[in-house]
UniProtKB/TrEMBL annotation:
The keyword Phosphoprotein applies. It comes from Chryseobacterium joostei. Keywords: ATP-binding, Coiled coil, Kinase, Membrane, Nucleotide-binding, Phosphoprotein, Signal, Transferase, Transmembrane, Transmembrane helix, Two-component regulatory system. Its EC number is 2.7.13.3. Residues 1-18 form the signal peptide. PANTHER family: NITRATE/NITRITE SENSOR PROTEIN NARX-RELATED, NITRATE_NITRITE SENSOR PROTEIN NARQ. The keyword Transferase applies. Residues 464-656 form the Histidine kinase domain. InterPro entries: HATPase_C_sf (IPR036890), HATPase_dom (IPR003594), His_kinase_dom (IPR005467), Sensor_HK_TwoCompSys (IPR050482), Sig_transdc_His_kin_sub3_dim/P (IPR011712), TPR-like_helical_dom_sf (IPR011990). Residues 363-399 form a coiled coil. This is histidine kinase. PROSITE patterns: HIS_KIN.
């Protein structure tokens, strides 16, 4: 049951984003919407139909969803409610793509809807507040989401006691309570939803999901019989519609039920049915949840290699791993699994990742398992060091015995004195050469250590400044902006006080610029998603209308040490900055490739070029920092430039320090 409860945070992560509540019988519903947009229906009806179609297709076909959204906008024609709906459905479109954009659009919709006093506006505003809380969950935490639901969403929906929107909000709040292990309170809110939905909307999707939430809740309490009752009710609702995308959710709950009953062999084919539906309707996050259950079952069956592959595939696909709490859970599972397989070093590496992420989320301290794994690893390391020291001692003893033999022979055989002196002279010369070599090696190591200290200090200072800007000053400015926005909405008029709103936009732009500076100092995408994604984001950042950057990544491994990834990222960042700032190029080709322990960087531009020995003459700090990082990674750099452009080839050794 512990492993079953591990899936709870992942289930919540999906449930909070899964707001596409469509009818169980999807096809007639979609056909009716298509009929509205194709016939001579009123503009308001067409606009609504287009918006609902956009929401339905937002995760199935993003291009079609965007097309429907803009088609609906064309029929607004000054209608304030339709204009507010456009902002709401625009936010829905961005919800799983860009939470920052989604949050802005939700706030625009809320502001517009608050001026319209009717039932439709109030209920849509309640949904917008709920969805806005979801967009802020990762940044503000679950308390903010709970407060938003209880103080904003539910009070608006409770004006209309028997609305399906209120039932939906009760169900979603029950999911949050389940996540926080408040299983009894979760039952209470599920019952509130059931009271509304069974009586007023007996064949609705909202009721279907309430049944599934009940079943899941009882699974987490290990009450299989109770879970089965609600699972059967959900099955009765969905059975007539085998083509519905909602079937995937039913099979997910059925999987949890079989896991609760410890019927692992029966759960695997159910998982495959669920995966079939998720692939058919492009439900990538739910698919990853099925794969996580598959991993859990394979592990119970001691099919460790298969289980490990499934878990690593989940990290690679990234749908679940975008949520930090999910990623923490996956790290922990990989650590435990590798320990069970006897891979103590790999288990330690995953446990350290888990511990670091766990600390950053201000959760519980590092578990005792890491000490056990680390002690096993350290014991093996100590045994290896002891064996090495013993071998060195034996070698030194042997050398001492040899020298004693030479001295004893010298005292006995005087005739060999000259030969022996010559021999000792040769030994002296040889030792002198070795000493010089050792001095040079020590000098190189000291230079390397100094370079490393400088680079590490620079990165730590970047990280500190970035954190202070983003979390400190950025948070304060964002708070000031939000307070101004809230105050102005209640006290100012957008038309009369244009100067104030102009200043407010300038403040908003300043916050964005400050966060951009913080991200540039310490790239979050490098820490979260690795080198290839970070470089791709960097290229996208530098692109302009008059500048095209073609980035090609070849065989870049994801398990490079972080300090090496960071140094490569800084090298690429400096190369791009120089090409853009000095070369005045219109096209840049950047290629990064890896072959074993060698990493290659090639950058070509069609700029004005410079003298081939300019890098030796210039005192540019940028080129000096670039050369330091290349030397630190024991690399070589070649620069070729003329009036047709510049080509720089860099080869790095990433064998470790």
């Amino acid at each position: 049951m512990k492993r079953l409860l591990i899936l709870l945070s992942i289930l919540l992560s999906f449930s909070l984003q899964s707001q596409q509540i469509t009818p169980l019988n999807e096809k007639p519903y979609l056909d009716s919407l298509q009929n509205i947009v194709k016939t001579s229906s009123p503009d308001a009806s067409k606009s609504n139909a287009y918006f609902i179609l956009s929401n339905y297709y937002r995760n199935i076909d993003s291009l079609l969803s965007k097309k429907y959204l803009e088609s609906g906008k064309a029929f607004i024609k000054g209608n304030p409610l339709l204009s507010a709906k456009y902002d709401y459905y625009k936010a829905q479109y961005y919800l799983d793509r860009n939470k920052e954009k989604a949050g802005i659009s939700y706030q625009q919709a809320i502001k517009a809807l608050s001026k319209i006093k009717n039932e439709e506006s109030d209920l849509l505003q309640a949904s917008a507040w709920y969805s806005y809380g979801v967009t802020q969950k990762d940044k503000e935490g679950y308390p903010f989401l709970v407060k938003t639901i209880l103080e904003k969403s539910i009070p608006l929906a409770k004006k209309y006691e028997n609305s399906r929107n209120l039932g939906f909000l009760y169900t979603q709040f029950a999911v949050i309570l389940t996540y926080n292990a408040e299983l009894k309170k979760s039952e209470e809110y599920n019952k509130k939803a059931l009271k509304i939905l069974e009586k007023r909307f007996p064949n609705s999707s909202e009721l279907f999901f309430t049944y599934l939430n009940f079943a899941n809740n009882y699974c987490y309490q290990a009450k299989g019989d109770e879970a089965k009752k609600f699972l059967d009710k959900a099955e009765n609702l969905i059975n007539p519609y085998p083509e519905s995308s909602i079937n995937a959710f039913y099979y997910y709950s059925k999987t949890l039920y079989y896991i609760t009953r410890q019927k692992n062999s029966e759960a695997l084919p159910v998982i495959e049915k669920g995966i079939f539906y998720t692939k058919k309707f492009n439900q990538s996050l739910l698919a990853q949840m099925f794969y996580f259950n598959k991993y859990d079952i394979l592990r119970k069956l001691k099919r460790y290699d298969e289980a490990k592959n499934v878990l690593e595939d989940i990290l690679t696909e990234k749908s679940l791993a975008l949520d930090l709490r999910n990623r923490k859970t996956i790290y922990k599972q990989l650590s435990t699994l590798n320990e069970e397989m006897g891979n103590s070093k790999e288990a330690l590496a995953w446990e350290q990742k888990y511990s670091k992420l766990n600390d950053s989320l201000n959760t519980e301290s590092v578990k005792l398992e890491i000490n056990k794994i680390e002690s096993k690893f350290n014991a093996a390391e100590k045994e290896r060091k002891i064996a090495t020291l013993n071998a060195e001692k034996n070698q030194k003893d042997l050398e001492v015995n040899k020298k004693n033999s030479y001295l004893w022979g010298l005292s006995l055989i005087l005739l060999l004195l000259i030969s022996l002196l010559i021999f000792l002279f040769i030994i002296f010369r040889k030792n002198k050469k070795i000493s010089i070599q050792r001095i040079n090696e020590i000098k190189q190591k000291e230079e390397l250590s100094l370079t490393k200290a400088i680079l590490d200090g620079e990165e730590r200072e970047r990280e500190r400044i970035a954190r202070d800007l983003h979390d400190g000053l950025g948070g304060m400015l964002a708070g000031v902006k939000i307070n101004f926005s809230t105050w102005s909405a209640n006290h100012l008029d957008a038309e009369k006080d244009k100067e104030f709103y102009k200043i407010l936009r300038q403040l908003d732009n300043s916050v964005s610029e400050l966060r951009h500076v913080a991200r540039n100092l310490m790239p979050e995408s490098l820490l979260n998603f690795g080198l290839e994604t970070a470089i791709n984001d960097l290229c996208e950042f530098y692109k302009r209308k008059d500048l095209e950057i073609d980035f090609q990544a070849i065989n870049i491994e994801k398990n490079l040490p972080l300090n090496i990834q960071l140094n490569i990222y800084r090298i690429v960042q400096e190369l791009l900055a120089n090409a853009i700032k000095h070369a005045e190029a219109a096209n840049i080709l950047l290629q990064c490739s890896q072959s074993g322990k060698n990493f290659f960087i090639t950058i070509e531009d069609n700029g004005k070029g410079f003298e081939n020995n300019a890098e030796q003459k210039t005192k540019s700090m940028g080129l000096r920092n670039l050369k330091n990082r290349v030397d630190y990674l024991k690399g070589n750099m070649e620069i070729s430039s003329d009036n047709q452009g510049t080509t720089i080839n860099i080869e790095l050794n990433i064998d470790g320090e």
